[in-house]
Design brief:
Layout (H helix, E strand, L loop, with lengths): L1 H20 L1 H5 L43 H37 L1 H15 L3 H12 L3 H10 L3 H14 L3 H8 L4 H37 L11 H9 L10 H25 L3
Helix pairs in contact: 1-3, 1-11, 3-4, 3-6, 3-7, 3-9, 3-10, 7-9, 9-10, 9-11, 10-11
């Protein structure tokens, strides 16, 4: 049963990655059909004036929303936008977390104390409040939204890396490297990084899952991806306004979000059991 669930999780994530990478090929990015080469008939922004709140059909396989936009096209683009933001946020959190945690753990002493207090200070900052303040600056820039999420999401990575570095820095092979004049960059790249990869890998998967949930939650509240761009959270939010007359609007993105997070957690747990020491 575990093998089946693991295989399903890997297959589903690969499918989502394929959709996110080739969304422009599948549904295009232009309103006008003649200007956009795509596989599917409709783009995420194209309005069918004869199909307001229409249920799934041959013409619109997942139905349409309140203004006549195709749900399948918007779902594909929403997956792409949500994955893009989550990827940027995860990458930023990894870079900041590994750098800050590595310096704090390696140098120790006063530097470690200052970084630890800084970690605690960041833990006390409410993300929702900061995003409300930064929302006018972020606007509809997806990359900037991902950077902001990553900037406030690096703490767990930093704590993990700090703890691992503290464990490793007393090892004989590291003392030998330092005795031969190896600097921090060389030691971290050649000795710390290979040992940090096993515990950091599952954290990266869990982190991506957490960023996806955070992005979807914020977009659901109207603080994330701005219209007319879709995301999984904003699609669910828009669909709930018509849950009694058009459930096909919010059900597909809800299922996709649930299965994506579930699949990422399954993969993360597998990597944690196989490689991690925490």
């Amino acid at each position: 049963m575990k093998k089946i669930s693991n295989c399903f999780a890997v297959f589903f994530i690969l499918l989502m990655l394929f959709i996110s990478l080739f969304s422009d090929v599948i549904v295009g990015k232009d309103v006008f059909l003649k200007r956009s080469k795509k596989i599917y008939m409709y783009s995420p922004y194209q309005i069918d004036r004869d199909a307001f709140l229409k249920p799934p059909s041959k013409k619109h396989i997942l139905g349409t929303d309140s203004v006549g936009r195709d749900i399948f096209a918007r779902l594909v683009k929403g997956i792409s936008n949500s994955f893009l933001i989550s990827f940027v946020a995860t990458l930023i959190s990894l870079i900041i977390g590994m750098f800050a945690g590595g310096i704090a753990g390696y140098l120790g002493g006063v530097i470690d104390f200052v970084f630890s207090r800084f970690f605690e200070l960041f833990y006390s900052i409410p993300l929702l409040f900061m995003l409300i303040l930064l929302s006018p600056l972020i606007g509809d820039n997806l990359f900037l939204f991902g950077i902001v999420l990553g900037f406030f999401g690096w703490l767990f990575v930093a704590r993990l890396v700090r703890g691992e570095v503290i464990k490793l820095k007393g090892m004989p092979f590291l003392e030998f490297a330092r005795a031969n004049g190896a600097g921090f960059i060389h030691v971290f790249k050649r000795h710390f990084f290979p040992h940090l990869l096993p515990p950091v890998l599952p954290i990266t998967i869990f982190g991506f899952s957490g960023m996806l949930v955070a992005e979807s939650s914020l977009s659901f509240l109207g603080l994330g991806v701005k219209p007319p761009e879709p995301s999984l959270g904003s699609l669910i939010s828009q669909g709930l306004n018509y849950h009694d007359v058009a459930p096909w609007i919010y059900i597909p993105p809800s299922i996709v979000l649930f299965l994506t997070v579930l699949s990422l957690d399954i993969i993360g747990e597998y990597l944690k059991k196989r490689y991690s020491r925490f």
